[in-house]
Amino acid sequence: MDAAEALTLLMSPQGRVDPYPTYDRLRGYGPVVRSGPAFFVVTGYAEADEILRDPRFGVLDDDLRDQFLPGWRDSPAVVSISRSMLRTNPPDHSRMRRLAAGAFTPRRIAALRDVVEAQADALVDGMLARARAGEPVDFMAEFAYPLPVGVICALLGVPAADRPLFRRWAADLTGVLEPEITRQELAVADRGATELRDYFTALVEARRRAPADDLTTALVQVHDADGDRLSGDELLANLVVLLVAGFETTTNLLGNGLVVLLAHPREADALRGRPDLAPAYVEELLRHDSPVQLTSRVSSAPVTCAGVDMPAGSWVLLLLGAANRDPRRYPEPARFDPGRAQPHPLSFGAGPHYCLGARLARLEAQVAFPLLLRRLPGLALAAPPRHRTRLTLRGYERLPVTIDTEAAAARPGTPAGAATGTP
């Protein structure tokens, strides 16, 4: 199998469900692989990190979309993503990112710990109630989705009653982030984008009439005061991206991470007894099975990376999931090892587009895993979990679990803060 064949396999449904064997095949051709006249695939950690930080590489802009995706302006999904900070380069990217960054400072994220702990405790209560009633428990639906969506919706000022709407809308829209998409999948993504845009159009108008202490109000006021700082299209596009990115990655981190922990009972027991280990565990979980598996960049000038010459205009596919298992950086990369000396995975990217909500995602996971292990000591898989057939955003569609309600009842109750090592 040559590199082109390996890449074709990676894009297939089988390759998407378990990409790691294909990453190993691609790695055999080197950390940077040419797969076309101006198309390259990167599997190496150092090389991916270098490219993500190099100002000569940017995301796909409008001119290049016209070249690679003719007719993209007819797609609500592509247009919505392209007007957000996710798909813009400096100076527009820097301008938009600064406007939202105030909601994600270390101090503000730390202040959310009590909120996250309370929500996580309440969700575990709900899981226990379903289990006692003899009902099936899907971890994705009962915990992994509602925890992060509740937190990001609170930041944005989205009413609690509306939160269940977003799981399908976001799942539809994020299909447009895949490296390959069919016309049918694009139509589904367009539907999700339209529904999300309609929702936030109504929310923006509501915040104009009745301002609140939330990020939506803050961005609306910036737009209304100076449209040059944030246009109307940018306002809506960034609200959509902040919502979707605010929970999709964390939802996948929680689901992927729980499956790994259940497969490693010794390490799970250690975390149950030592919740202060949660930061190291979360970094290794991010590395071991990244919720974001790839991103892409386009070069604006000739670049040489790992001895491979890339002409200006090269499209580079950065396989973050492969980079996170680069044996040159991580000995025995397939092994789950929370004691690794220097994890620093690339799951949230690097450089100017480093994930704005990375601290929040880490906080939610650092709270969730010790709490789940402490309050649900008999937690186990009820059946094989079902992966989504997505590569960019890797996660589970369903993750059925069983809960030993007697073992849970026998656990002595402790305050949520004690479960996470906080005062």
Overview of the structural elements:
The chain has helices at residues 3-11, 13-17, 20-27, 45-53, 62-68, 76-82, 92-101, 106-111, 113-132, 139-144, 146-156, 166-173, 183-209, 215-225, 232-262, 265-273, 278-288, 320-323, 358-375, 405-410, 416-419; strands spanning 32-36, 39-42, 57-58, 137-138, 294-299, 303-305, 308-310, 315-319, 380-381, 386-387, 396-398, 400-402. It is α+β, with helices and mostly antiparallel strands. Strands 1-2-8-5-3 form a five-stranded mixed sheet, with helices on both faces. The longest helix has 31 residues, at 232-262. Mean pLDDT is 92; it is low at 412-423.
Report the sheet with the most strands, covering strand number, pairing sense and barrel closure: 5 strands, mixed
Shape: globular
State the helical fraction.
40-55%
CATH topology: Cytochrome p450
Instruction: Name the CATH superfamily assignment.
Output: Cytochrome P450
Uncertain stretches of 5 or more adjacent residues:
412-423
* First-last Cα distance: 55 Å
